Automatic annotation (TrEMBL), chain A:
Cofactor(s) the protein needs: FMN
Protein's recorded name: NADH-quinone oxidoreductase subunit F
SMART domains to which the protein is assigned, alphabetical: NADH_4Fe-4S
Family the entry assigns: Belongs to the complex I 51 kDa subunit family.
Automatic annotation (TrEMBL), chain B:
Signal peptide: none
Species in which this protein is naturally found: Methylomonas rosea
Residue ranges that the Swiss-Prot or TrEMBL entry lists as coiled coil: none
Domain 2Fe-2S ferredoxin-type stretches: 18-96
InterPro entries registered for this protein in UniProt: 2Fe-2S_ferredoxin-like_sf (IPR036010), 2Fe-2S_ferredoxin-type (IPR001041), 4Fe4S_Fe-S-bd (IPR017896), 4Fe4S_Fe_S_CS (IPR017900), Asp_de-COase-like_dom_sf (IPR009010), Formate_Dh-H_N (IPR041924), Formate_DH_asu (IPR006478), MoPterin_dinucl-bd_dom (IPR006657)
Protein name listed in UniProt: Formate dehydrogenase subunit alpha
CDD domains: fer2 (cd00207), MopB_CT_Fdh-Nap-like (cd00508), MopB_Formate-Dh-H (cd02753)
Family affiliation: In the C-terminal section; belongs to the prokaryotic molybdopterin-containing oxidoreductase family. Belongs to the complex I 75 kDa subunit family.
Any one GO MF annotation of this record: formate dehydrogenase (NAD+) activity
Record-listed E.C. numbers: 1.17.1.9
Domain called 4Fe-4S ferredoxin-type: residue spans: 158-189, 202-230
Keyword Oxidoreductase: yes
Residue ranges constituting the 4Fe-4S His(Cys)3-ligated-type domain according to the UniProt record: 96-135
Gene assigned in the entry: fdhF
Amino acid sequence: MTRVFISRDSTALSLGAEQVAKAVEQQANSKGLSAEIVRNGSRGLFWLEPLIEVETSQGRVAYGPVQVEDVASLLDAGMLDGKQHPLFLGNIEEIAYFKNQNRLTFARVGLTDPVNIDDYLAHDGYRGLKNALALQQTEIVKQVTDSGLRGRGGAAFPTGIKWNTVLNAPADQKYIVCNADEGDSGTFSDRMIMEGDPFVLIEGMTIAGLAVGATQGYIYLRVEYPHAKIALNQAIEAAYKNGYLGENIQNSGKTFHLEVRSGAGAYICGEETSLLESLEGKRGLVRFKPPLPAIVGLFGKPTIVNNVISLASIPVILDKGGEYYKNYGMGRSRGTLPLQLAGNIKHPGLFEVAFGMTLRELLYDYGGGSASGRPIRAVQVGGPLGAYLHEGQFDTPLDYEAFAAISAVLGHGGIVVHDDTVNMADMARYAMEFCVEESCGKCTPCRIGSTRGVEVIDRIVEGVQKDKNTVLLRDLCDTMTYGSLCAMGGMTPFPVLSALNHFPEDFGLQSAKA
Amino acid sequence: MSANNEIDYGTPASSSANQVTLEIDGHKVTVNAGSSVMRAAAEAGISIPKLCATDSLDPFGSCRMCLVQIEGARGYPASCTTPVAEGMKVCTQNDKLASIRRGIAELYISDHPLDCLTCAANGDCELQDTVGQVGLREVRYGFEGENHLDSEKDTSNPYFSFDPAKCIVCSRCVRACEEVQGTFALTIDGRGFDSKVSPGQNQPFMESECVSCGACVQACPTATLMEKAVIDNGVPEHSTITTCAYCGVGCSFKAEMKGEQLVRMVPDKNGQANHGHSCVKGRFAFGYATHKDRITTPMVREKISDPWREVSWEEAIGFAANKLKGIQAKYGKDSIGGITSSRCTNEETYLVQKLIRAGFGNNNVDTCARVCHSPTGYGLKSTFGESSGTQTFDSVMQSDVIMVIGANPTDGHPVFGSMMKRRLRQGAKLIVVDPRSIDLVSNSPHVKADYHLKLRPGTNVAVVTALAHVIVTEGLADEKFALERCDVESFGKWKTFVALPEHSPEAVAELTGVPAETMRAAARLYATGGNGAIYYGLGVTEHSQGSTTVIGIANLAMATGNIGRDGVGVNPLRGQNNVQGSCDMGSFPHEFVGYRHVSDSQTRMQFESAWGVTLSSEPGLRIPNMFGAAIDGSFKGLYVQGEDIAQSDPDITHVHHALRELECLVVQDIFLNETAKFAHVFLPGSSFLEKNGTFTNAERRISPVRKVMTPLGGKEDWEVTQDLSNALGYPMNYSHPSEIMDEIAALTPQFAGVSYEKIDEMGSIQWPCNDETPDGTPIMHADHFVRGKGRFMLTEYVATEERTSSKYPLILTTGRILSQYNVGAQTRRTENVAWHEEDRLELHPHDAEVLGISDGDWCGVKSRSGETVLRALITDRMQPGVVYTTFHFPHSGANVITTDNSDWATNCPEYKVTAVHVAKVAQPSAWQQEYQDFSDNQLSLLENRIAVNE
């Protein structure tokens, strides 16, 4: 029976993949064709979704983007045998957008049946865990430290150091918490991996549990990710059934339990301490640090809180070694970063690549420029708290330190593109508004400052005491930057000030630059 | 807030034994490890601006005013949440910090009313102080932006108002409600700019779970949560530390005054019993002290059917003295007696019993402890050697297993209840032995009893002995402790006794109504769960076997080694402010001060020599015997100071009968209470605000009571007793209560080291305080029991004679609630009636259904003693077959129903078990109607009193 791959990924579904899959099944049946439909993850080339891949004797052959009305002609053209058709794309892995990526973390996404553990095992799955089970705890942590992996949630804190802190914190109970409350605008890498290869996250968390002696893990999942929840729970069930979770994992005597918890629908719950509060059943209020969650975390116990991508990168590190992973990247940014291209871009999608590529290469060579065809004017990198970059900054390499040097962040790798019709004063106002909407309300600079920020920007734009209010806006940003309890209020000034500094004309101001 | 500006260290003290030295603004500072940078600075006299931090609450880090710079650290950490570290270098003031703080202050003020001059907190506002401190001069945002200035004020609580327009969302109130009080009535609703303090689920305070303890008001840095008394009267100008006159917790308060007007009572954070916490009674319910019902002129009358006649003090005292002397002349020396008050001070109580023993020449003195904790005195004295609890309140914070028997701390002893809940939230285990599901069982947030032994009233002894049975037969006893510290022979006998099969949980399960497995599990937990502490109340003592249960509890503690250190012990929760003190002060007919028997000739000689009289070696009459003798005709005169026996004592028809038989009843009280309606002489009493003295709380803590206003009647209570004594021919000549205390100290081993100077110096002292323990004794029996070896005593269960029958099928038990206090003479004269304006009959839905009673119906409650009518409150807190009521209102007649059964050892009445019949009725009982007539008549005799100058 011919295997046909049609994605179960939310993006593909939103573009009609479900209907396409049903159409293929029904029409193949009625035509007496033999096809087994596999619902895989997405390859991440969103402009080609819904994508159909067919397993043929010449390898996998892709067609896309497919709509229901195309199905009849595809089947008639011999799609199941990999025959030509106007939507024929050939081997998807040969498309430059895909071919030039470094798919370490996303190696299996789009390739396998996400919830089939045999498929996972057949594609190098659980090799990292197997290695980890043979290692001492300190040796596992050392591999992670050696890999140079830094937190992919956005803060870029060295993962190995965090693990080591938890390892050395004496406690009767420790926890592994996966931050899957992916809330940054224009980001979807966590969702894609949870929908497209949930086992890799489960394996990564299991290894983390072994490394630090935690027997319980929680995935705090964004409530707006229902498909990811289904995939994760299916995979967790399979892992339990096959002895990869629970007591005595693979007869090692080691225990690790894992549960998915739905998030509270608040952006702030993606902040790790707020997440812990929420996971404990309380209001998602930010905790002060210290104590670090690594020492006093979930229910007061030492806890690793890692982002999905950080944890999903662990299996390849334990499989191929920290050195292997470290060989990718530049400077202190090692390994790969799954970038997410969104906004006004011709080729939106997921692009996992080693650190070091420039933004310009990504935007133009792979992203294909703006979707509207107009010049790209501003790019926000790193989510709603990331700075807006102007054209003059597009040659900055994708590297934590290089971005920090221009007062920008890579964050979680979200890239939102705007063409020259954008009004950057609106964007600055939106940044403050976002903070108004999402502030937990605990600290004063964020709670009151964001509301005042919107008002002050409005006054500037309205032309009311422009200079005085511009000074006030800068003072407010200073108060928020240095006074806020967490990055929510502390980083809101990044998009605001970058817009003000690089695009003063949108505020009706002369160049604010000295 | 408190008008008296004391240092707020911002975060709680660290208890670490290790010290850390750091540098703050160039000064070397050494503090306990674990302290915050903010606290370290405050200890060094360096003030860092703050709004969300206060030293009664854990740090929160939200206002961001207290940011500092620390060498080598990134950014500007909040000093309240940053712990000190060795060698740390902190800078608290520089231009950058000043600019951030001003920026934050500017944000605060952009959403705050600019009405400082007319604000109730003007001059007493932390926001005002802090904004001044950081030098904010301009709010550039203007005042046109979004704000909360139009928020509606909530004035539903009778004592404080909540004005969200002034709120800075520091969460101090929310945290106080959680951390300090443990009620969790407050939360922050909404997020971001919409965040606002919300009682319950956006309800008015009075409709929320709020218990009006005042912790939120105390914690509020602005006028958002503000006492209405301050709004009405302005900020107080001076304050005096004194001790609350309500329950046996003995909270320390600052009476904040304007001249002689008490504006508010503020819990004293240095108070060693309450650590700055309070309850609705002590914090707010002081209005009775100046209530219009206060009687401030002495009154006399020949017969109780006569109108009262106001007279001078001299005349009233002379009238009383003549009457009493006349009675003695006619009926003999022993025909008169007196009752001391557990509401009055130690010194006053001492003086009354001295008057009786030395002036009346007999030992006919008793006190209200007769009807509450006399079995505690007997039981603990017999086993441990001292008639008192063994611990400090703070000890509970070291307990691992807490067993609460027949007590309801969250209602009866709320401030201690809050401390206990805090420990329970930290993870201590809880066993509740009570017929009712009190709040601790499962109605307190984040607290749940591990085991609730919901026993049938009257079966305490069987349950306690069954627990002992499990401990002994399962080998869980601490043999080493018992053999070393206790009388070995008694221990052996006791073990054999409790091990008998008839004492097993299985054997008594049906009798007690408690499943055997629950008793077994509870016993195992208490014996093996670490530090085990027992707290008990009147649900233990007010039984026909009250003393036996106390003994059984002492046995449990000794057998498990839970005695003599922090976290363990046997702790009676005393009902009234000075019930421990009144017992200590020789109020019992058989004991001199310090629990020494009157037949002990050595002690008697000591008193005879000090007092210059010959003293009787025969114990005098107990209260119930006085009533009996009055009805018999051999007891004719009674001096009652600050007690309301006509309401509080059981079988009230009998009591009223006795009182009517008296030829002279002298009542000294602040109100014309129920007893005074039977009196011939009324001597105006002074409230706790009008006199000096001391109260002794449930943990033996002697705390100062200080005069903040002139007695309304012109005399402090001790002066009145002294005048009466002099008129009776026994001279007393004290010029200040401190002299009385000096006399007590000279005559009493446990008090030898106590003096007013020492109390002033230490704040309070826990007796015994003498040469051996000059600073007092927080934990008793530490190295050895007071009596030498602890004595085990056998606790044979004997069922009460008060049995249910087809005629009286239900058991009535009684108790009290948070907002009212005992007979209610004080709390009924405050706004606390907003919470509880009548006594209700609580019954289980099942019983209600069978009886056809709906919530709010009038129910006739009839016992073998009498009948009264109460409105029904249907609640599953009760168990089927058991009904409950409170006794805060005289016309409720709860004590019309209670019987004259009493404890075998001490005559403590069996309030907790009365067989009753309940039925739906249409009108008050005959007793209630008669009593209403009598009471109305007495009030009209008061109303129509003949004024002093006529």
